[in-house]
Amino acid sequence: MKLTYTSSAYTNVQALDMIRSKNMILLTDSQLEGNFSTEQSTVLINLASRCFPYEPREQPNLKNVVDTLAPLQTKPEVASHVMLGIAKHEQAPPTPQRHLSPTGEACSRMDLRAIHQILVKTHYRDDEGTNELSFQEWTQPMRDTLEARKRGDFAFHDRDFKTAIDCYTQEMFIDVGTMVSPTVYARRSLCYLLCDQPDAAL
Questions:
Q1: DSSP 3-state percent helix, strand, coil across the chain (nearest 5)
Q2: Over 70: is that where the pLDDT of 22 sits?
Q3: CA–CA separation, 127 vs 183, rounded Å?
Q4: For residue 165, how many other CB atoms are within 10 A of its CB?
Q5: Helices 140-157 & 112-122, crossing angle to 10 degrees?
Q6: N or C: which end of the chain has fewer CB within 10 A?
Q7: What sequence ranges are listed for the domain Serine/threonine-protein kinase BSK1-like TPR repeats (predicted)?
Q8: What is the CATH number of the domain that holds 75?
Q9: HEC assignment per residue over 20-58
Q10: Domain assignment of residue 19, given as a range
Q11: C-alpha torsion sign, points 182, 194, 170, 121
């Protein structure tokens, strides 16, 4: 139901005086005359009178307004903007999706096999700059560490994930931190996931 009123022509006091005097004709838009019963008009005008008080606490809340107007709705299937002759606002265009890297795509699909293939292909390129070893670091422990990583890499490539976990988890590699390698941690976590050990992958 279209609700139109002419309150702009009257002050709150004048409108309240007219309501008290039951002068509803003066408060009703001429285009609406005859479209609504006296009972419906009375409900609307009483609702309007409750909206006039200056103090918000004295005004009806939104739920009261909706509960009052809902039974008077004669064309609930017609959208409000159509009844009021208002052009509907165009919806904002959807936010363009960010282009994901192959790794991001695989992670979004939780495709562990695809992640494995990506890690095999990228090898240790993501570690560049994190393992700048000095001449003094080329000790026997470091050579042992690199050998363990090499065995782990072969096992990882061949999908022997349990062996890869053992190699990547050697004490001198992970716990002591002889060489920092984000890729080793990523590979080991993936191996745990592929072995159905999600807690260990964290």
A1: 60, 0, 40
A2: no
A3: 7
A4: 23
A5: 130
A6: C
A7: 105-202
A8: 1.10.510.10
A9: HCCCHHHHECHHHCCCCCHHHHHHHHHHHHHHCCCCHHH
A10: 7-83
A11: negative
Pull the structure tokens for residue 170: 């050697």
> Which one-letter DSSP state was computed for residue 9?
G
Closest CA to 19 of 36, 42, 53: 42
Amino acid letter, 149: R
Residues 77 and 41 in one domain: yes
**What percent of the chain clears pLDDT 70, i.e. is strictly above it?**
58
b/e per residue 69-106 (b: at least 16 CB within 10 A):
eeebeeeeeeeeeeeeeeeeeeeeeeeeeeeeeeeeeb
Q: Which two tokens stand for residue 183?
A: 């890729």
Q: For 56-96, write each residue's pLDDT tens digit.
A: 777 778 788 778 777 777 666 666 656 666 666 656 667 66
Helix axes 38-51 and 62-69, enclosed angle (nearest 10): 170
Residue 91 lies in a domain: no
Point out which residues pair with 28 in neighbouring strands.
5
Which tokens is 70 given? 């809902």
Residue 89 resides in a domain: no
Quote the Cα angle for 185-191-193, to 5°.
105
